[in-house]
């Protein structure tokens, strides 16, 4: 039995007659009678028996009806879901991000997005940059947020804004009033930085070596928030990206540009061959708006480079 035959069968079961079923379905009575005959042929058994001009459902028809009603409800649900997906009001969005960018921009963006899209499920994966790129490239995330270069032929990246690495220190530190600091200024300072397999960590170590300083990093961290916590606790100075501090400034800490400059580009990355869902595209627009609003208030030279 096809969908139309099941629809006619259910209408006859609800109304009790061919004529009423035809009126309900807005078709002719002969059309309903023909469809009922074809439905019984397809089923291989009698669906209704006519007794004194009335139709009585067979036991097989009564057994079949709950399943037909369930199928109709499921089809209605599918139609509603299709409409909501088309309008971008349903679905599932996965975002992979460097931890600092998730804290700085994804949290407020998701809070704003979720208030208007409560039926869209969102998953956030905070990972190192190379893992963000891998998740996006393998379509395990709809898009990603990174601030370091990604060398992956299966992803496309779009630059949103750029900044430079900053040296964070307590507000009352002797170097806090400087316009910039370099390797020689930091020679006698306890220094915190990222691992040497990150772009910032690698370039900081290169800057120190080029300045003739053969020193080790005193504390190695893997997240910006951890670096700022340690600076605030008086453990040393940290060379880090500025995005988290821009979004969530700490009154006891200041940032001074580090020289030689270490450029950072905040980028949205996507899998080259993966089409975007409407829900993912909507969330991405909210993320962009949050980034634009937040970085406009920045005391650092963060430049909008979307164009």
Q: Could you tell me the CATH topology label of the largest domain.
A: D-Maltodextrin-Binding Protein, domain 2
* Oligomeric grouping of the chains: single chain
Structural class: alpha/beta
- Which regions are unreliable across 5 or more consecutive residues at pLDDT < 50? none
When the domains are counted, the total is: 3
Specify the CATH homologous superfamily of the largest domain: Periplasmic binding protein-like II
CATH architecture of the largest domain: 3-Layer(aba) Sandwich
Shape: rod-shaped
Helix proportion of residues, in percent?
40-55%
CATH first level of the largest domain: which class? Alpha Beta
Count of helix runs: 10
Q: The biggest beta sheet, please?
A: 6 strands, mixed
Number of strands: 13
Rounded average pLDDT: 90
Gyration radius, in Å? 32 Å
The SSE order reads HHHEEHEHEHEEEEHEHEHEEHE
Major beta sheet, strand line-up:
4-3-5-12-6-13
Keywords: DNA-binding, Transcription, Transcription regulation
Protein name: LysR family transcriptional regulator
GO molecular function, one term: DNA-binding transcription factor activity
GO biological process, one term: positive regulation of gene expression
């Amino acid at each position: 039995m096809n969908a139309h035959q099941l629809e006619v069968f259910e209408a006859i079961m609800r109304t009790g007659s061919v004529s009423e079923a035809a009126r309900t379905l807005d078709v002719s009575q002969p059309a309903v009678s023909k469809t009922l005959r074809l439905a019984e042929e397809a089923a291989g058994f009698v669906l209704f028996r006519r007794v004194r001009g009335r139709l009585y459902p067979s036991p097989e028809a009564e057994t079949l009806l709950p399943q037909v009603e369930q199928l109709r409800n499921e089809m209605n649900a599918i139609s509603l879901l299709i409409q909501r997906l088309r309008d971008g009001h349903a679905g599932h969005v996965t975002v992979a991000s460097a931890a600092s960018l998730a804290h700085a921009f994804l949290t407020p963006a998701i809070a704003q997005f979720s208030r208007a899209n409560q039926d869209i499920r969102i998953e956030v994966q905070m990972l190192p940059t190379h893992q963000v790129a891998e998740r996006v490239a393998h379509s395990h995330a709809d898009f990603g947020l990174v601030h370091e270069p990604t060398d992956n032929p299966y992803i496309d990246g779009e630059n949103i804004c750029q900044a430079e690495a900053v040296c964070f220190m307590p507000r009352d530190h002797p170097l806090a009033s400087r316009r910039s600091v370099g390797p020689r200024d930091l020679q006698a300072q306890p220094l915190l930085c990222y691992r040497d397999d990150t772009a910032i960590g690698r370039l900081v170590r290169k800057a120190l070596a080029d300045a003739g300083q053969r020193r080790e990093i005193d504390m190695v961290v893997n997240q910006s928030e951890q670096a700022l916590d340690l600076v605030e606790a008086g453990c040393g100075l940290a060379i880090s990206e500025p995005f988290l501090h821009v979004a969530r400034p700490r009154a006891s800490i200041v940032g001074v540009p580090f020289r030689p400059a270490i450029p950072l580009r905040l980028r949205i990355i996507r899998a080259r061959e993966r089409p975007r869902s409407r829900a993912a595209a909507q969330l991405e627009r909210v993320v962009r708006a949050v980034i634009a609003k937040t970085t406009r208030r920045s005391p650092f030279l963060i430049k909008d480079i979307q164009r």
